Amino acid sequence: MADKDHVLIFDTTLRDGEQSPGATMSHDEKLEIAELLDDMGVDIIEAGFPIASEGDFDAVSEIAKRSKASVICGLSRANYKDIDRCWEAVKHSARPRIHTFIGTSPLHRAIPNLDMDQMAERIHDTVTHARNLCDNVQWSPMDATRTEWDYLCRVVEIAIKAGATTINVPDTVGYTAPRESAELIRKLIERVPGADAVIFATHCHNDLGMATANALAAVEGGARQIECTINGLGERAGNTALEEVVMALRVRGDIMPYKTGIETTKLMHISRRVSTVSGFAVQFNKAIVGKNAFAHESGIHQDGMLKNAETFEIMRPEDIGLSETNIVMGKHSGRAALRSKLKELGFDLADNQLNDVFVRFKALADRKKEVLADDLIALMRDQESGEEYDRIQVKFLRVICGTEAPQSADLTLSIDGKDHQTTAQGDGPVDATFNAVKALFPHEAVLQLYEVHAVTEGTDAQATVSVRMEEAGRIATGQSADTDTVVASAKAYVNALNRLLVRREKSDPDADVKQVSYKDAG
Ligand code: KIV
Ligand code: ZN
After folding, report:
1. Which residues line the pocket of ligand 1, CB cutoff 6 A?
2. Quick check: 99 pLDDT over 80?
3. Core-most of 66, 299, 420, 492, by most CB within 10 Å?
4. Dihedral of CA 445/446/448/452: which sign?
C-alpha cells in the first residue's frame, strides 16, 4: 500500500481528552498512557498544553524524554510565550512537534478583536516563530468548519508559506456533517497553493454524534491524519474515538482503502486504562470497546454465533485484544491462576502488587460465588485508585436503612493515620454515609455526579461507583467497586476527596489557564 494511503493517527487523549472537566490525570498516569499509546503505534501523541500549568509542562517534558517511536506534540496558542514554552517541553523528544492554533471563524476572531488582516499577520508571525524552533509544526484554524472558506484558504496558505508542515482542520464545536467534512478538505487541497507539500488533518468533536463519520469522510476528501482520543474522551460530547476510526478503516478496507499503523490488539487494554485513570466509564453499548460490543444475548444471535461467528460479528474480539474466555475464578483459585488471568486482561503485576490484589481477590471470592473477568478489572481499578491517593480511608461502615426515614450511617474514617468515628443521618443510606464523611472531614467540595453500575449480573454482583466533586474550580473523580453499593459509594466519595486534596496541594497560579484556553486563543 503506497504512502498516500497511510493515515496517521494523532492521539490527543492527554490534551483534548484531559481537558474534559473531571478527566484530569496525575503525572504518573499520563506517563503510563503515553507509553501505551507509543507501544500501540500511535504516530503522534499530543501530550499536553505546556503553558497551562507546571504540571502540564512537566508531564509533556517527561513524555518527550521517554518517547520511543511516536512524535511528541504540545499545544500552544498563537503567541510567542506559549510557543516557546511548548518547545521547551517537547524538544526532549527525538521527534518533537509544536502545535499552534488560533480561532479563525467570525465568532472567534471577535475574541482577541483582530480583523482579518491582523489575524493573518499574527498567523504568519507565530507559525514562522514556531518553525524557527522546530522543523515539525502543526497549525490549526480553530472553528475551521464555521470559518468563511475563502478566508480559510487564505490563512492556510499563509501558514504553509510560514513553514507549517501539518494543517489541521478542526470542527471545534462538532457542527459539520460527513459530506461537508470531505468537501472542505478537498477544496483546501485543490485551492491552496503548496497544499500538496503538507499533511491535512481532521479534528472532529462529537456534539451531533458524527465525529467518527466526519473524520472518515475527511480522509475520503484527502486528509491523512486523524486526530482522536481513546474512548472518544473529550470536552462536551467528546472527540473522534481512536478505536472507532482505526477499526472502521480495518474492517471496511474494501471501501476505504487506507491503513494505519495501530496494533489493534492493544485497544481494549488502553481503553480500560484510560477509563480508569480519567474516571470516565465507557458506556456499555459503546462501539468497539463497550462491555456489550461483542455480547450476544438473544437466542437467535447466540444460535447463529455458535454455528458461525461471522453471522453476527464483523470483527473478532481478539482483534481488539478481548479474550474470549470469561474464566470463572473462585475462592479456591490460587495466586498463579490469578496472575495469569490478570496478565490476560492486560495487568502485568510485580510480586508485591500481586500479593495485595490476592488478598482482596480472596475477600471478594468469599462474598461472591464466581469472580469473572469484569470483577477482576473492577478490583484492579479499585486497587489502583486507592494506591496513590489515601490520606483518608474508609475503615468501618454500617448503615441502617428501611422503609422509615431517615437512614443512618455509622462510619469510621482514618484521616492521616488517625481513626475518627461518627454517626450521621440522611435521605437514604448513601446520603447518610456522605453526610458522615462530611462530618468527619468538613469540606466545601460540591458533589457533581454520582453514578452506579453493576459490574456483572446477579444479586451478588459488584457495583462500581463513580463520584465527581468540584471545589474552587478544581474537579476530581473517584471510583470504587464492592459487592456492597453503599461501601463502594463511601470509598468512591473518599477517593474523589483524596484526589481533590492532592490537587489542592499541587495547584499553582497558572492552573486555570486550561479553563480559559479557548477564550484566550488569540
Ligand atoms: O477543537 C479544537 O479546535 C481544538 C484545537 C485546539 C485544535 O482542540
Ligand atoms: Zn478539540
Report:
1. 16, 101, 140, 142, 168, 170, 172, 203, 205
2. yes
3. 492
4. positive
Mutate to test the pocket of ligand 1, among 15, 140, 200, 226 (most ligand atoms within 8 A of CB): 140
* Per-residue pLDDT band at 509 (split at 50, 70, 90): very low
CATH of domain 3-278: 3.20.20.70
For residue 406, give the DSSP letter.
Answer: P
Measured between alpha carbons, how far is 395 from 356 in angstroms, rounded to an integer? 17
- Cell 468563511 belongs to 148
Nine-digit cell string for 70: 511516536
DSSP E strands in 217-330: the ranges are 225-228
pTM for the structure as a whole: 0.82
Domain range annotation of the chain? 3-278, 294-324, 388-507
What are the backbone angles phi and psi of residue 168, rounded to the nearest 5°? -100, 140
Write down the CATH superfamily of domain 388-507: Alpha-isopropylmalate synthase LeuA, regulatory domain (3.30.160.270)
Distance, in Å, from the CA atom of 231 to the CA atom of 507, rounded to the nearest integer, reads: 28
- Residue having the nearest C-alpha atom to atom 5 of ligand 1: 142
Distance in Å, CA 439 to ligand 2 centroid: 40
Q: Give the range among 186-200, 236-250, 480-494 with minimum mean pLDDT.
A: 480-494
Helices 27-40, 267-278: crossing angle, 10 deg rounding:
170
